[in-house]
Amino acid sequence: MKAKPLLKDNLTEILRKQLLAIREDKLIRISPERVLAEELGVSRLSLRAALKVLIDEGLLIQKQGSGTYITPISDINSIQLIIAPDIKTNDPFFKAFLAELTTWLSRESIQLSIYDFDRINGASPHIPLIIVGLLNTRILTKIKNTFKYIIAVQCYPEDEDISQIYFDDYKIGYMAAKKFLEYNHKRILHISGPAKYPSSNYRRKGFFDALEGSGVIVKEIPGKMNWSCGYNAGKTIIKDFSSNERPTAIFAANDWMAIGLIQSLSEEGIKIPQEISVVGCDDIPLAREIVPGLTTFRFDFKCLIGELISVLNEKYVNKQNISKKVLLPAPFIKRESLIKI
Predict the structure, then answer these.
(1) What is the pTM of this model?
(2) What pLDDT does 215 receive?
(3) Which class in CATH covers the domain with range 169-298?
């Protein structure tokens, strides 16, 4: 039963006013649903409907396993963005991040300037700079020597002197392996991405660490993190594995690889998930539309932006010269491509 429109609208407005009154320059955790519902004298169902409106508006974010938070307010007037050279404009991660970032910037009336790595000389050293993607050592060193306020939306394992916000890729790989074990799979394959990328490297490490000592048969096919790699991996599986040696579960380093794999195996008459279960990572829009629906891990970009604002305020507004690493959870999204055997 849905909340009545009048109750929902009134409740949403009451919550909005209360939250705006206590909003600060950092993430603030609000009371659990049970407590809020009791305080407001409404059902948890009605409260949940109102909270969803405020989450969609961007006033609130939900962090898996942590609770619901008020997004920070900021006195920043301008932000600069530099994009790594290997990131394409149609990259799913970049598109989703940029869409959420520009929505927040527009709402807060903050100007955004975007630079390619070869035009960075035109950027201002005194305006906060956000790095998206992996820059080589030469460019990163130049940036660190030039800019005062830097935050990377990427893991730089060897750099402790810049703030970094990224999803917990090690845990993603670890959880994927544990799900396969929970679902009784004994022959398991990982289609891994390039080791030069921390994201694919950590997903691989977490995956194999979780399977260590389990007694299952584990194999790996490395490749690029794109559709073609997954498609070609499917052909390799058919060619190199006999029917009783084929994996019953495959974890692909991202969704595009997983989708290419599903198409390739389906062309060869392999039924997904009846014969082979497939799990990806990213939860791109196509993951919900293909048949079978792709089991994956979701990146919450509202949560990422909330943490980004909070760190920006610490560094730029409050002048705290501290570099920190913020790991974000990636919820497991179960769909039809994974079954128990």
Answers:
(1) 0.87
(2) 93
(3) alpha beta
